[in-house]
Amino acid sequence: MNNEDDDDEQNPLNSDELGNKGEHTFQALCSDAKLICNKADRDRSGWDFIVEFNLDHKNPGILDARGNPISCVVQQKTMWDSNDRIKLRLSSIERLAKDRRPSFIYVLKISKETLEATSAHLIEMRGDALAKVLKKLREEHAAKRFQVNRATLYLTASGEGRTIGTDGESFKQALLDAIGPSVTAYEAAKHKELCVLGQEGGKISLTFDVNSKNDLADVFLGIIPVKVRDVKVSSTRFGITLEKDDIPEEGEVKIQPERADTCVLTIRRDRFAEPAVFDGEIFFAPSQKTDDLAARIVTDGFEIVIRGSNFSFQSQTMKPDTPLLSPTEWRNYFLMADALVHKDATIEIRPGTDAIGTIRHRVSGNVNGAPRDFVLQGLTASGMLTTVVKHIGVADEPKISLSDLLSQVEEIGSVYTLLTDEELLTPLGFEVEGDLPAHVGDQIQAVHANYVLLASQIIVWVVDADMKRETSDGRSRFVSTRLDLRELTILPPERYETYIKDLADGSTMIMSRLLEVERHAQPT
Fold it and tell me: Quick one: the chain helix, strand, coil %, rounded to 5?
């Protein structure tokens, strides 16, 4: 295609002749470079040719996994070498610029004296060239000139274009250099440019009513939605502000605030008690006075809302979202719960930067509402289980549900006591009715095995026991006089039965608890 800016009367070829020469030259150089060049029958799509690379038959790779060869769209322009400015119909260049495929303008300059090509330029529809197209479209929209087929855009071959050789190999290499090794990555990068080039942010105006300052703060903190009316949304791009006309004038909005900072939040039952520690994010509502200060601290398991200079504590969620936590995570949760069922708990919020000072607050009264017996049981069980898991030594702490944690306090306490103070452990014992074989004396050795159910594993421990017989009313009872922890490990539940069988040596009594398989099933 020729360049419409060239004057036919003073040139050796008219515009049609010059355009035909350029198109034939372009097709010939594609053939020289072994590129497939398909001409558009009607120039209504913004491009003159689809240029495709051939399949690599020498290094095909795995045939069903290889991608398609490079394919791009090209608008071809021919001009005299005394000119550098390209006149483009805006409707055509819009299609070319917004095509998801790699798209280019190939400019061929011809000498008036020799009618030979003197230089070639390749304009890639990315970066500055793409920005000029998008800016011109926005200008036309702002002026309410929506029939863009009547508008024109000018580019320069040497300004927006890259000078290349006039031969086919130079054109082919320029395409490879522009597109890179991955067409998919190229198309994704171009799509991003189409969305973000020239963007300068936006503005939303709307009207809503609230009953109090607290409600207003809750709206800006993203806690509650609000009904709005007279909604107007505008965006600024390339310095031009436009109002969006596809936005409903009324509706319900819930703000997702931008965090002000990260923080470390600690909660203690008293000043020097062991704290519960959580990572969180801080959000602030707009305020002009200290008394109006409103902040929201969000952690994985709960939220705290602070209001005014006399902070009040508000828990949005007092139980973790997930049913499966590690023993350490359960202990941290119950340390928090323990603090909040006592009076005068201390909350300290340490922001991640110096922009906001440390926030300290003393909570008056029980804000948790959980029964103290429940909290104490959970704190005890999670603390003991944390110690047991540390003694085993695992890279990743296993998970356990709250119900399994609280229902196995006795088992957890047994293995914990074996590790910390065996003298406090309740002796093992069993009764036997009737006469015993002659070889069974008053002292026997036994092996006891037990377990704690976890989410997908079990903690197993094995104890060597010396048992002493006590006789009463014709019944024999054996009670342990010594307990020594032999093994402590974590196993998949399906290995438990084999593990117990391997303990037997033919002479030692094995006392083991049957694995309650149905209880081991956990929610996913």
Answer: 30, 35, 40
